[in-house]
Every structure is written in structure tokens, then in C-alpha cells.
Amino acid sequence: MSITTDAGLAAGWREQALAALEDGRTAEAHEWLRQALAETTELEWLNDLAVLAHQRGRGEQAEALLRAVLAIDPERADAAENLAALAAASSALAEGQARADARWRGSRTLGGPDPGMYERAFPGMPRPDIISEHTSRYAYALSLVGGRHVLDLGCGTGYGAEMLSWSAASVRGFDLWQPGVDEHPRWPGVRELHYGHDLCKGPLPAADMAVMFEVIEHLPDAPRALAIAFGAVGEIVGSFPNPVYHGSWMNQYHVNDWSLERFEQELDAAARASGRFAGVALTHHHQALRSPLLTPGRDPESSYWVVHARGIAR
Fold it and tell me: Is there a single domain that holds both residue 79 and residue 178?
């Protein structure tokens, strides 16, 4: 098929289509235009372009091209076959992703080795009160990360990183946990979850800010981890549990029993130790015992503290 077998004929069909459209004869106008396009368009090239788009991972573009070919020439067998193959491949991919998602979400060790004391929160955990408390902190952070590049330090199973992706320009998660082969989390909004990363030692990429929820109390060298974080970002939104309620005496994974004043001091010292800041400006929120609600203000007696620490330029 040539590009223009009869351009004059196709132009006449287009005029016929416009005239029919003006008279309200839309079905007739559609047929005239379809014939004009069939005469002036190299449909085989569009079919080939669709195949290349699919091979490059652009499935939606490939489908649009193939449907355009069939709209112009419904009898093209090659386009119809390719569209059917594309649908089958998409279905197989979706089924594979669903199976992989079910596997990691169904892992019995997703929350850690001890089902009596979870090391990390996870989707479907049988403690809705805990996941509610945790997600509330990420919900608060959503108001701060809009359009910014964010690190989720101590990302765990990644549910919080996924929440942050709803507002942030990008989110990268880092965690010491090494998921098993069938329990590596997958989230649609987060492409980078780095596991096996020691926050007390490993360098971090530059970003606008970091969140550190449910992690600082777990770190054997938390001051160093905070300093590394301030070396990469200008702001940290961190949480810390009141050891009166959540200390190492009742949670074997907690190794730091800091008061709120100590938490504030460590944030300030870490900002200075990074060599980038003269100190920090702090904004406080807190959570009462067994409550998911964050209340503005500083309360040393509350169950959880959430602090937004902003580095003060030297």
C-alpha cells in the first residue's frame, strides 16, 4: 500500500464527510473519513510502530495504535492478532503481579520472626490499632512532602513510602530488613525500596527531606544515623516512643530509651555533626496512648512524639 494511492480521491471523500457532518449524518461522515484515512495512511507502519511500542514497555501506546489501525480498517488481520496478543500479555502480567503481591503480603514472617511482638508493621497485620497509629504519622507527613524528593528511612514493608508517594515528587525507602525471596514488597507508587541498608553506616542520596518513623528507637547508633540523614537532607520528620509505655523493657527490638528532651538534643547534635547546620528548629506533635490522632504541641508525658526538625543554616 502506498502512502497516497489517490490523494485527490481521498480529499473528495473528506469533503463528503464534512458535508455529511454538517447535515447531521454522522454515521455517513464517519465512513467517508475512514475511507479517506485508509487511502492516505500507511497502516502497516502503524502496526509495526505498535509492536515496537509494546517491546519498549509502552503497552497503552501500543494498544492505542492498534485500535486506531482497526478503526480505519477493521479487516486488518495483523492488527487484530497483535491486539489480541497484547491483551493476553497484559492479562498474564497482571495475574503474575497479583500472585507476587499475594505471596509477599501473605508471608508469615512479614512482621518479623516473633508473631507475639511484631518488629515492623505490615498490610493485613492483626493489630489494626497499631497500623492506625503508624499510618497517622505518615498522613501528617503528607502535608509536608508535596512536590519534594523524600527518603523514608526505616521504610519497613513500604506502606508509608507508598502513602508519601501520593504527594511527594519521589520517594526512596531504606531499611536494614532483608526480605525473603517471596516477601519483597511491591507498591505502585514507589520504585526504589533499598533493603539490607544499615542506616548507621551506609551513605544516603541527597533529597529534600526524610521521614524516620518507628526506626530511631531500633538503631544501635542512632546519633550517627541521624547525622548521616542530616548530611543528605535539610529536614527530618521523626517519631519516638515514650519509653514509659514502649521502652526496651517491653519491646525487645527497642534499644534506645530516650526522653523527649533527649530526642530533641540528639536531633540538634546530629544536625551540627553533619557539618551543614548550626542546629535545628523544631515543630512538635504528640499522640496519646492508644490513639491514632496527632495533637499539635510538645507533651513529654504523651505516648508518642512526632518532631519536625529543620536544619538551621550556618
Answer: no
Q: Are residues 288 and 141 in the same domain?
A: yes
- Asked if residues 283 and 307 have their Cβ atoms less than 8 Å apart, the reply is yes
* Cβ neighbours for 198, distance < 8 A, ≥ 6 positions apart: 176
Crossing angle of helices 43-55 and 59-72, in 10° steps, is 160
Enter the pTM of the model.
0.75
211 CA to centre of own chain: 14
CA pair distance 125, 1, nearest whole angstrom:
61
CA distance linking residue 188 with residue 181, whole number of Å: 19
Domain with 139, as residue range(s), is 128-313
CB atoms within 10 A of CB 115: 10
**Tens digits of per-residue pLDDT, 270-280?**
999 999 999 99
Q: 196 and 248: one domain?
A: yes
Which residues is 76 bridged to in the sheet? none
